[in-house]
Design goal:
By secondary structure, this protein is of the alpha+beta class. It has 14 helices and 23 strands. Helix content is about 35%, strand content about 20%. The structure holds zinc ion (ZN).
């Protein structure tokens, strides 16, 4: 077999376990990268591709998490969180940076010496080059000067974090580490997760700060971003047929909704006891994926603050996947979506076949509705999938998806556009995901074909009898004959 030009990459662990209704990687298990599309192809003959397996779990009505555990051991977790989230904003911290103008930085990457690490703390300043070429530093606060002297704002501040794990605070190993207030943003952009940094100026600089130390938001002069995450609440993804759905173009990634990590206080009054309780609201739909990451706090308020200030792992890092757990509910929703897609496909095929037989006048309109529904249910999977060029030598070209769901969508897409596209047997209505014959509407088992032909012949004979007895007109006879599937 020739080498495939495009590769895909997904993460799984050597072992998983069930804990508190969630599936998570077992402690000490190994992280494995694999190609889900190539792997799925291996199982095509036996109709055991990744979506076949999910479909079967659903079809057998398996609500048992053990089925999903078996699935995770084979394919990893689908990662529904990253399929719907495209930006994570973290709380401000003192973090390492580089500046080509600061010469004290002596890197110890080769010697790996960890001893005597000094931290020098800086406030963020703009380096300003005046017209007479004198260099002046301007802080965020005095930024107005930039315009006054018609000077150019140049800064060489560059984040000096581990690109694979920005939460790794022992990196880099250098003699002198320069720290500056920064706010990290993880952003899914053009098919890749990126680490972006927002340099901040603070009112009071903590000269004794250590890497990772939290900065109070009240201390930030300007440019503070509320920590939280953006969730794609694409109306295409909703099963409503409101007018707004029509205005969303297919290429659009949909609507994004910001959700702060700190949801604040709520007061709940108890009518009977007339007691007023303070309740802290958590962004549960985010935190539930990381059950072991947040430590139990003494108070609810502390816990709520902890979520806001937590140094959330970078979505492509090992730390992220190792701590990521998925609930049976999310997996069930994925299975329903896969099943719904094929049911829609089946219904669409049936309708179109009948429309063709009947030769109806309002063809285009009916077709549009049928195809739009199909389109919507497929976009649920493929909306986050993008073609990227991987830096990895091993993977020259790659198709990147932030979740396994995108790859599943791609496999479905590949299959339904092939000559041997999946179909439902028109007799027994079972899904045939890998038909042996390109044009057969039946299971490969010949009984269904025979049974269906016999049934059709009988129906036709019955109609003919009615016509012969003059119980129906010729016109009705022709119409009824067309409806026989
Ligand atoms: Zn059949």
């Amino acid at each position: 077999m020739s080498e495939r030009l495009f590769k895909t990459n997904w993460v799984k662990f050597s072992d998983y376990e069930i804990s508190y209704g969630r599936i998570k990687p077992k402690k000490g298990s190994k992280m494995i990268h694999y190609d889900p599309i190539a792997e799925s192809e291996k199982f095509k003959k036996s109709s055991n591709t990744v979506y076949d397996q999910i479909y079967k779990i659903k079809e057998n009505n398996q609500t048992d998490l053990k089925e999903w555990l078996r699935f995770a051991k084979k394919w990893g977790l689908p990662c529904t969180l990253l399929h719907n989230v495209d930006e994570i904003i973290l709380a401000p911290r003192y973090l390492a940076f580089q500046n080509s103008q600061i010469s004290e930085t002596v890197r110890d990457h080769l010697t790996n010496k960890m001893d005597k690490v000094n931290f020098i703390v800086h406030n963020f300043e703009y380096e300003v080059t005046k017209l007479n070429s004198k260099i002046q530093w301007v802080s965020e606060k005095n930024k107005k000067l930039l315009n006054k002297y018609r000077v150019q704002k140049v800064n060489y501040f560059e984040s000096d974090l581990n690109p694979n794990d920005p939460t790794d605070l022992n990196w880099p190993y250098s003699n002198v580490v320069h720290l500056c207030p920064q706010q990290l943003i993880y952003k899914y952009f053009n098919g890749k997760w990126e680490i972006r940094t927002n340099f901040l100026t603070v009112k009071k600089l903590n000269k004794k700060a250590k890497p990772g130390d939290i900065i109070d938001k009240k201390n930030v002069v300007e440019g503070y971003l509320t920590p939280g995450y953006f969730k794609i609440t694409d109306s295409i993804n909703e099963d409503n047929d409101e007018i707004e759905t029509l205005s969303v173009s297919i290429s659009s990634t949909g609507k994004r909704k910001f959700n702060p990590f700190y949801l604040g206080k709520h007061f709940i009054s108890n009518y009977r006891n007339k007691k007023i309780e303070t309740v802290y609201d958590y962004p549960h739909e985010f935190t539930k994926y990381f059950p072991g990451m947040l430590q139990d706090e003494t108070s609810e308020e502390k816990h709520a603050r902890n979520i806001e200030e937590f140094f959330w792992p970078f979505p492509v890092s090992e730390k992220f996947h190792r701590n990521y757990a998925e609930e049976g509910y999310e997996l069930g929703v994925l299975a329903i979506n896969i099943k719904m897609f094929f049911i829609r496909l089946k219904e669409a095929n049936k309708h179109i076949r009948l429309l063709k037989n009947k030769n109806e006048k309002n063809y285009p309109n009916r077709y549009n509705i049928i195809y739009r529904d199909l389109e919507k249910s497929l976009i649920k999977f493929t909306s986050r999938l993008l073609l990227t060029f991987s830096k990895d030598k091993d993977r020259k070209y790659s198709i990147y998806s932030p979740s396994l769901i995108g790859y599943i969508g791609h496999i479905i897409l590949q299959d339904i556009t092939s000559k041997y596209s999946p179909r439902f047997c028109i007799e027994c209505e079972r899904l045939i995901s890998n038909p042996a014959k390109p044009d057969s509407p039946y299971c490969d088992d010949s009984t269904c074909g025979n049974r269906h032909r016999v049934r059709r012949t009988r129906k036709k004979a019955k109609l003919k009898k009615l016509l012969d007895k003059k119980e129906i007109s010729k016109k009705v006879y022709i119409n009824k004959l067309r409806e026989i599937d």
